[in-house]
Each structure stands twice: as structure tokens, then as C-alpha cells.
Specification:
The chain contains four helices and nine strands. By secondary structure, the protein is of the alpha+beta class. The chain has a single domain, classed as 3-Layer(aba) Sandwich (Protein Transport Mog1p, Chain A). A hairpin with a 4-residue loop joins strand 6 and strand 7. It is globular, with a radius of gyration of 16 Å.
Length: 193
């Protein structure tokens, strides 16, 4: 199922637009009920990207790759239909640094530290939609492929636990080409009801 969703008004926000407001309020974002993935957050998915929910059975089959720190993958958006090789993955959890009440920075530090062969890590506090978030930029050395590639991740806390949105990519060129999708997710991020 295609997970192309349109931008909508963040909960509680309004922008003078008359009839447009009603239309925007009815549009769904990835993460809302009725979309490919039901999540604690929602965001606009870039055009042509295809999202798929990751079930607990799928996580179990992944073995060690099904966990990064206290988080497990909940949703994966594939860039292939948009002509790129990479994924935007939403990770979530409720324990440790992902427990409700923890900070986005603590969650992000734990997430990145659980990555193998990461380096050049830079953290910064940002606003994602209207949410307080921590963004990380870092590189990962893929020993099997013999490449060093950049990665980007964004951590937020919700009443239902921590969420990290992660952008990888086959290589630096693919990562750069997919950054607009990451920025769109960040800009349109909000909490689901």
C-alpha cells in the first residue's frame, strides 16, 4: 500500500485559510490511524516513498538488528519508488532512555552509541514541528561494503515513549538525495492522538 500522505495542520495549530483548514485537518499523515504505520508521532512522507509497518514477528526474525539501544523498528519507508536506495526508519520504545519522561538527548545518545562503527557524531537541539527534539549527524563505516556513509537521526519523547526517525542510505550521494524527505518529516512532525 502506498503511504503517500499530504501535509496537515499540527494538532492545536491553525493558520488562517478558511475552507483550506477543514481540508487540511481531514488529511492524514504517516503514523495516524488508517495509514501504513500507526505510531506515537505522525509526519508527512515524501512523495512516492512507500511505508510498511514492522511487526514484532519481523523484529524477532531480525535478531540483533531488531534492536538499537532500547528501541525496535516500528515502521520503514522505502525510497526505491522515488528513485533512491535507502530507508527512513521509525524506531520506538518505552524502556531505559526511551521511557516516558526521559529527554530526547539521552535517547539520541543511547541510540547512536548502540550503532556499530559510528564516528564524527554531532548532536544539536532542534524543534521538529512543535516538538522539542535532538538531532544527530554521524558517519558509519560499513566494513563489508568498504564505505563510510553519513546518517541522520531525530529523537523525540512522547507520553508513549521515545521515538527516533533515522535516515540511512547506500552511500553519501544517496543520503544527500534523500535528505529532503528527512527534513520534511522533521518539519511536519507532531504527536498522534
Amino acid at each position: 500500500m502506498s503511504a503517500v500522505v499530504a501535509m496537515s495542520v499540527l494538532g492545536g495549530c491553525s493558520s488562517g485559510g478558511g475552507g483550506d483548514e477543514k481540508k487540511k485537518a481531514a488529511e492524514k499523515k504517516l503514523g495516524d490511524k488508517g495509514t501504513a504505520c500507526v505510531l506515537p508521532v505522525h509526519f508527512t512522507l515524501a512523495t512516492s516513498w512507500k511505508a510498511e509497518a514492522i511487526t514484532q514477528a519481523m523484529v524477532d526474525r531480525m535478531g540483533p538488528l531488531g534492536h538499537q539501544g532500547p528501541l525496535t523498528p516500528a515502521c520503514e519507508a522505502d525510497a526505491k519508488p522515488a528513485g533512491h536506495i535507502g530507508f527512513l526508519t521509525v524506531w520506538s520504545g518505552t524502556k531505559g532512555a526511551a521511557a516516558p519522561g526521559s529527554s530526547p538527548r539521552a535517547l539520541m545518545k543511547t541510540f547512536v552509541a548502540a550503532k556499530n562503527f559510528e564516528s564524527n557524531v554531532k548532536f544539536r537541539e532542534v524543534k521538529a514541528g512543535g516538538l522539542r527534539a535532538t538531532e544527530a549527524r554521524y558517519t558509519v563505516t560499513d566494513l563489508a561494503a568498504g564505505v563510510v556513509r553519513p546518517e541522520r537521526a531525530l529523537a523525540v519523547m512522547t507520553k508513549r515513549g521515545g521515538v527516533v526517525i533515522h535516515l540511512g542510505g547506500l552511500n553519501a550521494d544517496e543520503h544527500k538525495a534523500m535528505l529532503p524527505a528527512f527534513e520534511l518529516a522533521k518539519k511536519s512532525l507532531g504527536l498522534t492522538s
